[in-house]
Specification:
Length: 393
């Protein structure tokens, strides 16, 4: 299924690039964006088609019969993915308001809830107790989970290949974790989370050759929010459906709900820093700025590719650190402090240096800006002010 998703995305992206040139679906560079040349949009469409292809193929394979037979989860994931893809594509074509985009994300989360993908159990860290969410709170928790995941991935999509690589690492790490749960008998073969995780990995692997710097196509909001929705669905299926505990399987002695927070540490940290930073400046949460982690790295002179690779390495470190006890059953007490140290180190290293580089004019000057960001934006650009009939170079 990894090969089907990767091959499908790789092939469909060529078609998306041709259609983008034919219909002038192009992100034009300007002072607010990082990219320096007209670049095709619509990569999210290739991802969505490859996702549908992979789900269709999986439904016909005997080993996935428990996932698709008498189980509403796969259909719910497909419908929710379609909802959020349409909202994202409309936003890529003609900018929609933040409330309208949020409404689409809420609708997608609601679809997941009614299909059976919901947050049922919430283990309380350190106390060893499990909270069973009431029917009143479960829908809210599910919608918030989808909303947070979709926007975290969308926010980090500011450099060529950055979001694609981070989500690929996160999906791969989460698949390894979920596979350990399956082999330990703590999730059943009917669980759709493993299948969705490996498909997400395939989507990213197939898209990355087109998207790594210099990118030949962007995924846009449609692709970023689709990846966030699929990661949310995968994690809901695995961590929200079990209340079992064991060392190294419920993220050490922590709650399973924290797994995606660790694996997706870079986009979540970047989102948290943005909220704190803008609150301190008394500016709106959706107010764009140039102080994201990737902008700071570029101002320090690392360049586009190196900045992306550095953030990939941080994601690998976080994922490897929190997966270590699942194979050794040791290191539970150390992991939370090590993760906190990595987060503090990331902020301590980049925050002051980024400020000094900006004030002193350091860096290579390649961080030329970003698109409107906050909750539902990315730095790779929108279609703006392009005369009708103009094709991509």
């Amino acid at each position: 299924m990894l090969a089907v998703a990767a091959g499908g995305t790789f092939g469909f992206t060529f078609l998306a690039r041709r259609l983008a040139a034919r219909f002038s679906f192009i992100a034009m560079p300007d002072e607010r964006r990082v990219h320096e040349r007209p670049t095709a949009m619509g990569g999210g469409g290739a991802m969505f088609l490859a996702f549908l292809l992979a789900m269709a193929v999986a439904s016909q394979l005997s080993q996935f019969h428990p996932v698709f037979r008498g189980n509403s989860e796969p259909l719910g994931v497909v419908v929710a993915a379609a909802v959020i893809f349409v909202i994202g594509m409309v936003d890529d074509l003609r900018e929609v308001s933040a409330p309208a985009k949020a409404s689409g994300q809420v609708l997608a989360g609601t679809v997941l809830y009614f299909s059976g993908l919901t947050m049922l159990f919430f283990r309380v860290p350190l106390l060893g107790t499990t909270v069973v969410l009431s029917p009143d709170l479960a829908p809210l928790a599910t919608v918030l989970w989808v909303f947070g995941m979709a926007n975290a991935v969308n926010l980090i999509d500011g450099l060529d290949g950055l979001a694609t690589g981070i989500v690929a690492i996160a999906a791969g790490a989460f698949f390894i974790y979920a596979d350990r749960l399956l082999k330990a008998g703590n999730v059943g073969p009917e669980n759709s989370g493993l299948l969705v995780a490996v498909i997400v990995l395939g989507l990213c692997v197939g898209f990355l050759p087109h998207n790594f710097h210099p990118a030949r196509i962007f995924m846009g909001d449609a692709g970023a929010m689709l990846l966030g929705l699929l990661m949310a669905a995968s994690t809901l299926s695995v961590v929200g459906q079990t209340d079992a505990t064991f060392s190294g399987r419920t993220y050490f002695f922590f709650a399973p709900i924290f797994i995606p927070f660790f694996i997706l540490g870079i986009p979540i940290l970047d989102t948290a820093f943005a909220i704190v930073r803008r609150a301190g400046r008394r500016s709106g949460l959706a107010q764009p700025d140039k102080d994201h982690l990737h902008h700071r790295l570029m101002r320090l002179g690392h360049g586009h590719r190196r900045s992306v690779v550095i953030l990939w390495i941080w994601t690998l470190l976080l994922s490897g650190l929190v997966l270590y006890p699942t194979f050794t059953n040791r290191g539970n007490a150390v992991v939370p402090f090590a993760v906190a140290a990595l987060g503090v180190g990331l902020y301590t290293l980049f925050a002051p240096l980024g400020v000094r580089a900006r004030v002193g004019g350091g860096g290579n000057g390649s961080a030329r800006g970003e698109g409107r960001d906050g909750f539902g934006a990315n730095g790779t650009g929108k279609v703006r002010d392009l005369p009708a009939g103009r094709a991509a170079p």
